Amino acid sequence: MINASEYHGRLHRLQEKLHQRQIDAFVVSAEDSIYYLTGVSYKPLERPFFIIIRADAEPVLLVPALEQDHLRAAPNVSEVRHYWDYPSPPGEGWPERLTELLAGAGRVAVEPSLPLEIYGRLRDLAPETLPLVEELRVVKSSAEVQKLRRAAYYADYTVERIFRASYHGVAELELFSQGRSVQIEIMKRDGYEALTTSVLAASWPAPLSAQPHGVPAIDDRLGDGPHIALGFVRVNGYAAECERTYFLAPPTAQVREAFAAMQEARRRAFAVIRPGTPCAEVDLAAKRFLQDEGFGPYLLHRTGHGFGLGNHEAPWVAVGSAEMLAENMVISVEPGIYLPGVGGIRHSDTTLVTRDGYENLTKFPSDLGAMTLLGRKPLQRLQGALVRRAVGIR
Questions:
Q1: pLDDT tens across 83-103, in order?
Q2: What are the two backbone dihedrals, phi and then psi, of residue 90, each rounded to the nearest 5 degrees?
Q3: What percent of the chain has pLDDT above 70?
Q4: What is the predicted pLDDT for the residue at 74?
Q5: Would you state the pLDDT for residue 78?
Q6: Which among 61, 58, 64, 55 has a CA at the least distance from the CA of 105?
Q7: For 339-373, how does the pLDDT look when each residue is reduced to its tens digit (9 = 90+)?
Q8: Given the DSSP bridges, would you call strands 336-339 and 313-317 parallel, antiparallel or unpaired?
């Protein structure tokens, strides 16, 4: 549980950043940023929300009229103003109210994710674009680490459910449906904040698994080849993932070789994780090894990324990153090898940077033996047939 004092501390650190950079007003508009500063969840849809923050004044929250009572629960905001709706008649919309709230501000800054529509309304103020909230979010508090640890537990549990349901010939639909069981488990054990909780249970079947962001169809079947199981979750505001390459038939010699190389690349990446290590060095530890082993043509992405409110956020574990690891950052480690026409080989873990090194928050097994599932599973086949019949898939 994140208490009110932590939210107040986040605001004060943000105000210190404004002091240091001599910013008169900072416009916070991203949904995750507002959630980070207030703990209040909402969905903006077409109606924008704003917090106007000044270094030496109480912040002001600007919201659509139908949200003003809901947002008064924000611990950091004593003043809530509203506009009528979207769109509004002239004089009653967010552009007029936002302009009023920024009156007299010399240097104005906005978030990098600010929509172009809003930026256009502020163009006369020549706002600077600064990732100030993102800079605060990158190192987690002890309360955030506990929430991330819990999310990682459910990422593991999602992969466990996928493995339990998998058999040679299983339909993707049967694996997608495991997400519902995970959601129910979250509700039973941890409560369920509907707007900030989501579960994706899926497997990328071979050879589609060679396309990391390809999208499996619900009637795809998993047969031979390397499949990649994904537990991609956000639990009451905080995110984690677990991925495992697994097999429903004995892997070929080519795939076993690639699997062993992927495991060694992971080991080399983990070996350099500690506070003070450049993120680029972690990426290079995995990438250089795989290139030296001849897998360079089959690499498609960096070694990792950060977790927090989002499943993908800073720090970026990539050669192009200038960021340094620090204690209580949470990152993924997921070097991958992608063999066209064969499939992808990638594990991913949610990893905490500790004082002396790292801790994997996801703890699902990763060795080749545990990844090879050869049982016939008659009960799972029967259950799968019933699920397919319910949606008209043979």
A1: 999 999 999 999 999 999 999
A2: -50, 135
A3: 100
A4: 82
A5: 83
A6: 55
A7: 999 999 999 999 999 999 999 999 999 999 999 99
A8: unpaired
Q: How far from the centroid of its chain's Cα atoms is residue 233's Cα?
A: 8
pLDDT at 335 over 90: yes
- Residue 350 contacts residue 360 (beta carbons within 8 Å): yes
How far apart are alpha carbons 124 and 120 in whole angstroms? 8
Closest CA to 314 of 300, 330, 298: 330
Fold held by 4-137: Creatine Amidinohydrolase; Chain A, domain 1 (3.40.350)
Residues 261, 366, 356, 274, CA torsion sign: positive
β-strand pairing of 330-333 with 313-317: unpaired
Q: Is residue 302 very low, low, confident or very high in pLDDT (cuts 50, 70, 90)?
A: very high
The full DSSP string for 239-254 is: EEEEEEEEBSSPPPHH
Task: Kindly give, in sequence order, each residue whose CB lies less than 8 Å from that of residue 390, ignoring residues fewer than 6 positions away.
Answer: none
Angle, alpha carbons 239-242-248 (nearest 5°): 150
Whether residue 277 has pLDDT greater than 90: yes
Residues shown for the chain: 394
CA dist., res. 30 & res. 50, Å (int): 8
Beta bridge partners of 345: 337
Strand (E) or helix (H) holding 285:
helix 279-292
**Six-digit token pair at 256?**
């076993």
What pairing do the DSSP bridges indicate for beta strands 330-333 and 60-64?
unpaired
> Residue 43 is encoded by which pair of tokens?
């969905």
Superfamily in which the 142-391 domain is placed by CATH: Creatinase/methionine aminopeptidase superfamily (3.90.230.10)
Q: What is the pTM of this model?
A: 0.95
Closest alpha carbon to 310 in 121, 50, 166, 133? 133
- Please report, for the chain, the start and end positions of each structural domain, with discontinuous segments joined by +: 4-137, 142-391
Residues sharing a CB contact under 8 Å with residue 9, sequence separation 6 or more, in sequence order: none
